[in-house]
Fold these 4 entries.
Entry 1:
Amino acid sequence: MRVIKITDSAAIRRQIHDYIVANFLFDTGDVKDDASLMGEGVLDSTGVLEMVLFVEERLGVSVSDEEVLPENFDSIDSLVAFVAAKQPTAAPAGNLSSGA
Amino acid sequence: MSEAVPSERSDASFLRGTLAVDVEAETHRIVEHLRESVVKRFSRQGAVVGVSGGIDSSVALALSVRAFGPERVVALILQEKESSPENPALARELCRAYGTMPVAEDITAALEGFGCYRRRDEAIREVIPEYDSTYHCRITLPANLLDSDAVGLFSVTVISPEGQQQTKRLPLRQYLRVVAATNFKQRTRMAMLYNCAEGHNYAVIGTANKNERDQGFFVKYGDGGADVDAIAHLYKTQVYQLAAYLGVPESIRRRTPTTDTYSAPTTEEEFFFRLPFETMDRLWYAEEHGLPVERVAHVMQLTPQQVARAYREFAQRRRSTDYLRSQVVALPPGDSGPR
């Protein structure tokens, strides 16, 4: 699995946004960064599991059961904040790299 | 959430603390519904009910016997190697009580043919490598629906022959494969029910209650596959009221409802509902009837946060399980032909 090591929040945001649009909206729509993903029916419980997998496998952030909360997973804004907080070395801008 | 203004009747019923049903009138209504649907609409001459020894199928059988008489109802007991051993005894006790002849079929070989156990076990082994066929397993959700905002994630628990227990969260891919594999059980039962029904020119009576139907606790084309639903409009607590009225044996009425899907015992509360039925039914009734959160919290001695959490969960379940209740979606004729 290719893990994308992202070290700025803009790049994290782009990755999460693009993944949600491609996998849950099938490129037929868009979603605002502060929209409730569960409230608007974009994510159901299986969708949340899929996001957990994405965050763990693609963004390299481990997620405990207790962290699977709406405040961490219910919007792009909250996902970005969650991932950024779990990556304490995050730089303010610009550094996007990838590795195996 | 429903925006309906609560009626005086719904409010009063809720405030009484039970979802009381007029059992005699309701029984009459369901019996008429079964007769009308099975005989007049579908031109079938009787009913087949899959009986598990649980409360729902017992009430469905009792209602079917009232509708068609014991000679025109087949009670099918569909066991497999992981079924609870007490189920067939309870199902037979039920049949004796209503004068129907039970027909028992073992579906283990069919499930082995589908690879039900093997596929499930392979997925579980990816999460817990030491798990093998000598272990028991079950899938559960956290029970704290009212007290945590955490999204309910399924965990797998395995129990070794020595009794050692291990629980881990099921990642997405393994979760989907475990569910897909175990769903063979409900779908095989459905195939057997229809085999029996077609062999008699009877109809299959559904045994799902309102909780299962509306919240999506059933397998599409599995236990959701039936010709006529008997109790799909009744909350679980109302099913118990009917069971008492219809004389369902006490041994069945006193049992804790289980899924009877996994080799280790799993209650329906652990597997899906995440709340005791008495609490869930009242909260769900309140949500469906648009009762204000603050008022419900006061009456039920819960916090407004707990009630709001339950309301959100019900709405989410209803939305996310719409797929299960939907029939095949066909495209209506368009303007493109014939030319």
Note: Residues 90-100 of chain A have pLDDT under 50 and may be disordered.
Entry 2:
Amino acid sequence: MTDPTLKTTVLNAAHRALGARMVGFGGYDMPVQYEGVLAEHRWTREHAGLFDVSHMGQAKLTGADAIAQFQRFVPGDYAALKAGRQKYSLLLNESGGIIDDLMAGKPDHDGLYIVVNAGNKYEDFAFWRAHLSGDATLTVLDDRALIAIQGPEAAEVMVAHEPVLAEFGFMDCARLMLFGVDCYVSRSGYTGEDGYEISVPAAEAERIWNTILKDARVKPIGLGARDSLRLEAGLPLHGHDIDATTSPVEGALTFALSKSRKDAADFNGAGRILKELADGPSRVRVGLSVREGAPAREGAEIADADGTVIGVVTSGGPSPTLGRNIAMGYVPPSHAALGTNLKVIVRGKASACEVIDMPFVAQRYHRKPAA
Amino acid sequence: MHFTRDHEWVRLDGDIATVGITKHAADQLGDVVFVETPEAGKTFGKGDSFAVVESVKAASDVYAPVSGEVVEGNAALSSAPETVNADPEGEGWFAKIKVSDAGQIDDLMDRAAYDAFLATL
């Protein structure tokens, strides 16, 4: 029985027809798996996986002051962002903590198109509405579904439907007609693979989902594999690996801090963030390769070689691609160097692990050569 | 074979009970990636957590369906945890326990009662 307090996406019936096992996630009744997490994970790494991510929040921020207002709370340079490009960024509180992570871009000539996490979307939208001033209007696009296709065959599959998609490079975005309807599309995703995220009118979602699924290279993929794929790609999950207490420096997300914005120091939390950049943070997110024993999951303690607890795992589990256990978590910078030998403590047993570079599995984004 | 509401099974042979998790439990877990079985000599009371089974997503406790002393944990599961999915009520057994009170078996469900219980879930 479905929990009646859960919302559904417009693809709920399609998931059930495909035999999905449904779970509550981010307030929505979502498919955790269809065929099985391992098979779906491997399929996405080898072919193309189709994901319903309609639970995520989509919005437009428009008006003459939209970008200036947006930039008060995010550390990326969106004024300089070219039309047709998007950028990963962070919604920051006054103390530099990460309220949410997000993708924002310029798919058309009308402000920013923003995608935020499902579990945070109402909080995010309320934050924007409370803090925006001047000529800046937030419009929540709750009449849209969001479909992601990811994997080495994703581009071939999609270009067969819509040849224009071949022209996109990683992080390119546009608003255009696809499958006969008004879509926002970007070449991006959350698996480390090449692929696209496509925002479609809700009423057209099931038709487009089924059209893409007809290709034998495509299988539906649940949230279980989405999580193991993003873990291998070293990508943090908000609410687990980053939250309102962690800064972008602690979260190892300094790439999201644009140089011009650091120089101007004009965004929420800039004081703390610039201080941490200069002096170092007290903790930092690292990748761990767990050499033995059980998977180290969220909440497992991290100890130094002497057994003194120095940190905690925020995500972890088996890597289907690597065939061993991996994790990410926070340790002091003194223990964050690549190659540092540490221990993770699972059910009272200490297992040897080593700090290694992320991503754990190489990303395969479709980056266009610089023009 | 007898069953618990937590989806363990137990098969009694003399005073040795072989225990594991049911096909329903294995199917619900999905791909099993790690199993921690108990060492010989450990004692458990009925209902105690005596083993851990992990899917890609999560770790779950396995509870002793009867009280007793472990005479053997299924060491083969450490290198082949997928056996739990392939043959949960056979080769995928977790432990053999020397039962301290064979009468505890009578509190458990038989196959027909367990199937009826599954139908209510």
Note: Chain B is about 20% helix and 35% strand.
Entry 3:
Amino acid sequence: MKQAYAWSAIAAIVLASTTGDVLLSRAMKQVGDVGELWRQSGLWTVIGRMLRNPSFLLGVLAMTAAFYSLLFGLSWGDVSLIAPASASLTFVTNAIAAKIFLHERVDHRRWMAALMVAGGVVLLAA
Amino acid sequence: MTFRKYLVLASVTLCASIGDSLLSRGMKQVGNISLSHLHDLILAVLNPSVALGILLLLGFFASYMTALSWADLTYVLPATSLGYVLLTLIAKFYLHEQVTTSRWIGVLLISAGVGFVTQGPALTQPPHEEFKTASAGKRP
């Protein structure tokens, strides 16, 4: 039963964090370069633009769901299973989602990087 | 990529790995949380390790948002995965833990993955920008 809870938490973490990452990435591209915007218009302008962006707010909501799924998962399963399994799966699902929803150019170099990091994370937990 | 931008990526890496470690320690102190006592999950933030972990994760969030404002998601995520390598090196040389061969291979894979992605451009250019760049390059 503990294992079932742990893997449910992993699935929830992967789904919520991928949704959150994609929404936040879209929002921050719409906000613009934070460093430049901060220098030109001040910190409050940056914060105001972020908080008025619907993608940002939905992204934070999805990340909150991922965070509580992580806390829930950590209380049931070992960190050596929950953290690497959810992290490595998230690398792969993010690459797929970024290509489909953000139209990022995920070339061979980026696929290799995502798969190598995902594989590396699994080996670290072995 | 400027030095400032590399500092932002380093901040993402450090805050995430240290924050996660603190959260893990805190949740082990809190103990198992059952579905019938979900309010315990909210009270868990009163644990000092969980609270400090959350503070560091806020630092992670600020630097992560900054990085996403000028780089692709598929660049930022692998580029900031060196935290796993860092934790292994701390385990080996600071905590004197046994690090197996498969873990060292994992460290090598992650480092190679980070090397791969950071060699390329950080941001996908819109198609018309790419065309302009290519056309400018062809001019004598």
Note: Chain B touches chain A through 47 residues (CB under 8 Å).
Entry 4:
Amino acid sequence: MTRARLGASLLMLAALAGWAGCTERAPEQPCACAEAAPPVDAPLMAFLSKARAAHHQADQREEAQDIAGAITALEQITATSLGATGSLPEAREVLSDTRARLADLRSQIGKYDEAELDLVEGLKLAPKDSYFEGHLHEMRGVSEERRAKTSAESGDKAGSEAARRRAFESFEKAIDVQDRVIRKELGDAEGEKR
Amino acid sequence: MIRRWWVVAPAWVALVGCGGASKSPASTPSGGYQQYGEPGAEAPESQGDESPGAGGARPPATYQQPPRRDQFESVRPQTRYAEPPSSDARKGADDELMRVLEDFTVAESLALSGQAGCEHACQALRSMIRSAERVCVLAQNDQEQRVCTEARRRVRDARDFVRSSCGRCVDGPDLDED
């Protein structure tokens, strides 16, 4: 018998024995395995499920060119009252990612100031030096670039130039953050210092 | 039903695993042990008789009744169970098992963390590439052009780093591009 097969058989036996131990317990006796470490936070799971459904709905509406409808779908997520669950990293990531998408959608229909509010809220929630933080900066760049174009089309040269400049700086920031994220995720200590 | 099955399963696995080595003496009086013994080990005395399955013996032309209990008992003493391993051998086997389990656990956790790390790095690289493209489109003066050049260099470095660490990104970007 090879080492791998031996190891796999043992793991299977251990898993079966452990599970059997839990499942054979009388119903009135709570299983110690479940008590020791509750693996999932039920409100978090419900929130994540709701968020997934809302993003799916937003995808469909966006495909149908219904940008306002997509925004409404995503606002179900940001309007959810989360209590303590809201401080969990998974919830913060979902919320900040949703804010980034909302900013993108709002800026597509010219609602740049509302988009900026979403970005500010998202940056409060996004973990530092995370993909989500970088993505929010990227979306600010996208939003400001659109604003610059709109301003230029309406003859507002100064406004356009200011927005272009903000877009440029936001993209630059996004590059900085994502570069750090890559080094951090892949364990490049030297690169992180750069 | 399912619960029962899972309770029985470990016992079944254990029985199959152990039972495979000790087939009924009536069907394989000697071959069963020889199969798991050392290669080239001398065959037990019973190998030369007419029992089916013995090395080189031809199967009987007619159906043979299975041995009665007294016949069975006469066969039984000819088979010998393997000697239990010495305590040193058992300790060695235990150590080996522990090493295998440790190797497996370490490899599994490394694979899982590496996979997640690469997924995040690829996602970040995609965002970095998009942002660098926009920086270069928006650049107007010399200073901004330099920022664009620097952004492209950083993307190249990051892409090389992701390629060397992860090989490829499942959902893009293409790491072989320059």
Note: Chain B touches chain A at residues 3, 6-7, 9-10, 13-14, 17, 97, 100-101, 103-104, 117-118, 120-121, 123-125, 127-128, 130-132, 134-135, 138-140, 144, 147, 151, 154-155, 158, 161-162, 165-166 (CB under 8 Å).
